[in-house]
């Protein structure tokens, strides 16, 4: 026993590190084996603010059987089962990535009694019946919208959340913003197709606001069975044959493509031809300071860099004034202005008014440079 105790004391550090490592390994394994929650936006199994678990529970308490599907085949099987059971069905479609094609959307619309679509894209709208089209977005400062129609569902729900919403126009439109076109709620005259332009109305975070819950309950609870359909990658229609490069290219490329290739070859020949090997010959070149200053001035003029030229002129004037007044290289702008004022018998405000000017145009810059030159000459002459 004493030998074991002595061994543990001798290797106490390694024993502690080993225990910590084993505990961390066990904790990681336990966390990985635990079931993870659904984080899909507007999923009825997602309890986060962007989920829709609260809406599904409210519908279930009012006698609506809610089930979520992530593929078109599973949705169709659920619709067939409900039809055989004699139950009416509503399908909520939220295809945020635009996976479904036109034929799939038309088939889905014909297989259900009522189709409610959330914030559809352009390709999704093309497959829906009812002639619903996009009409813009809700302005940022608009928080809620009131019903402006006689439809029973919006009229009973009242105002709803309009943040980050989209507007649609169709046979029946409701929740139209002031001075806008279309509405947050659009549908067909027979009521079989409804488009909602806001996902926040169904989200857990905003369901309790205004009349969101009432509109969700009346729009999705009209039938006994609700299929909550969130399409996935498996619903993307597969092409029968691989798409060729000619099919992907625009029609004008067949005409301009060869011509552009010919022009590219000419450019390569023109830029690639050589007159002979390069010869390096060191030449003694001396560039005068005046020429350098003139060259920089032309660059500033071509770039219209008035602010940059102003700072350069101001810095140069301060350096030369400090040298003339023998203030040393560490003197600041305030010290130079005070010394120049005492030297000329003026107040620091007068000197600062000249040095701290900010010309905005080239003509003002020229006049200001002349004032700086006169100031320097006056300091030199006294």
Computed CA radius of gyration, to the nearest angstrom: 38 Å
What's the oligomerization state?
A: single chain
User: What is the number of beta strands?
Assistant: 11
Number of DSSP helical runs? 15
Outline the structure in words.
The chain has helices at 2-10, 12-33, 53-61, 72-84, 102-111, 122-126, 152-157, 212-220, 245-248, 253-272, 289-303, 306-324, 333-344, 348-355, 362-381, and strands at 65-69, 89-93, 114-118, 133-137, 144-145, 160-161, 166-169, 172-174, 185-187, 193-196, 225-229. It has a seven-stranded mixed beta sheet. Strands 4-7 form a two-stranded antiparallel sheet. The longest helix has 22 residues, at 12-33. Helix 13 (333-344) packs across helix 14. It contains 15 helices and eleven strands. With 382 residues, it is of the alpha/beta class. The model has no long low-confidence stretch (mean pLDDT 85).
Describe this protein with a few key phrases:
11 strands, 7-stranded mixed β-sheet, single chain, 11% strand, 382 residues, 47% helix, two-stranded antiparallel ribbon, alpha/beta, 15 helices
